[in-house]
């Protein structure tokens, strides 16, 4: 299967990059092909809501790195959203990619895909991931994708904290389960 990891952290070597790495190791060990979109380090512009794509066969008015990302999204059987928790939701970096799904909504909704969420935040309260979990779940329902699982790493504000946590092994196990 083709697995596409979409990373939304500005930190190339941060907390969530370790979650992504472990998931990738698991998925590769299970024989899957893994590709990656590093949203924060690519030229990806915000959706303008101009509806140009609706009048031009799904072609976006922006000419940026989403041109490479669109075929990867199309080819993926499983899509993994990896993000630090920013104000209890996705980072703006990964949200830009999600909003740009708009240009290929119909195609994406017609394709059976599995979706995964890997998130990390500094807070320890059990409600801290409620917002992002609910958003992810509703997004999956809209896209008609299977919400195939998540790792929600509470109390992980740094690399050191996540290294000592149970969450990296959870990400590896989830990757193997694809
Ligand atoms: C702008 C900003 C907003 C944040 N908001 C939250 C939050 O709402 N809840 C939380 O638990 N942690 C929050 N954090 C902490 C990060 O989610 C946490 O440090 C995470 O491990 C960073 O991951 P990274 O190293 O992969 O970027 C925030 C950090 C920043 C910079």
From TrEMBL:
Alphabetical UniProt keywords: Flavoprotein, FMN
Signal sequence, start to end: none
Xref: InterPro entries: Flavoprotein-like_sf, FMN_Rdtase-like_dom, ISF_SsuE-like
Gene Ontology MF: a single term: oxidoreductase activity
Gene3D superfamilies cross-referenced by the UniProt entry: 3.40.50.360
Domain NADPH-dependent FMN reductase-like: 1-124
Entry keyword Flavoprotein: yes
Keyword DNA damage appears in the UniProt entry: no
SUPFAM superfamilies per the UniProt record, alphabetical: Flavoproteins (SSF52218)
PANTHER family in the cross-refs: IRON-SULFUR FLAVOPROTEIN (PTHR43278:SF2), NAD(P)H-DEPENDENT FMN-CONTAINING OXIDOREDUCTASE YWQN-RELATED (PTHR43278)
Protein name: NADPH-dependent FMN reductase
